[in-house]
Structure formats: C-alpha cells, structure tokens
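Consider today's protein:

***
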Amino acid sequence: MALKILLVDDETVFRTCIREMKFWETGEFVLSGEAGSGDEALAVLAEREIDLVLMDVSMPGKNGLVLSEIISRTYPGTAIIAMRSDVDYHYVRALLKHAAYDYLRT
C-alpha cells in the first residue's frame, strides 16, 4: 500500500517542484494533499488519513514547530519530516523533540 503524503509549504513554487518529481510515479508514495499553511494542513489532516507530513518549518502563522506539536498530539500515528533552508540547531532539536521523524536541509 502506498504511503500517503501531505506536503505543507507556503511557497507555491516549492510545492509545484515536489509535486512534479518523478518518484511519485513509483507507486510507493501518493501525494494525498497539499497545504500552504499550518491551518490548511490541519484541515487536510481532519479530512484524510495521512501517513507522513512533509513540511516547511518557516511559515507564517502556525510555523513548523507549532504544527508539529499539534500533529503529534492530535494525529500520533502520522510521521513528520521537517524541511528548512537554514540551520538553527536549537530549532531542529525542538522539532525532533516534538515528534518530527527527521529534518531535511533544503
């Protein structure tokens, strides 16, 4: 069964880039939803079963740290991989502490 992914990033260009990657064609992963904010992500999670949230850390409103805390509390079976372009190890530690499975520097 394919892993259901929710992509969360406030940058439309980045979401488009991820959406157009060839690995979606393997059948191992399915892009089950996209969100441009933390609030949109929570709305998608309330409607669909998601296995993995691939999310940007730096977003206006509910940033990745806040969103990861909410997801880990509300959807404990959903894995989180956080992405961020710069490295702030204090922030990364906090993300990992609050349920992010991994961290990718983009």
